[in-house]
Amino acid sequence: MVNKNSRALHQPQRTCVICRSVKSKQELIRFIRIADQVIYDLSGKINQRGYYVCNDNNCLQKLPVWQRKKRGKQVGKKSI
Ligand SMILES: [Zn+2]
To answer: How many Å lie between the centroid of ligand 1 and the Cα of residue 80?
Structure first.
């Protein structure tokens, strides 16, 4: 933890993939998709392309839906 000024002038902002709201990194959870698995990168050390989602039940609950959509795009076909 850096104990400088509590009023940071510029905080890194990220977009939640679910609700598209822009928040500071502290309010979001970073996760990584490996194959069909969602892995939460709590340490921030995993060197993979990450996504961000709100640290909020609403958005976390919708994550499986988002995942399915993503996968559907890659396949390009509907199996139903
Ligand atoms: Zn969100």
So the answer is: 29
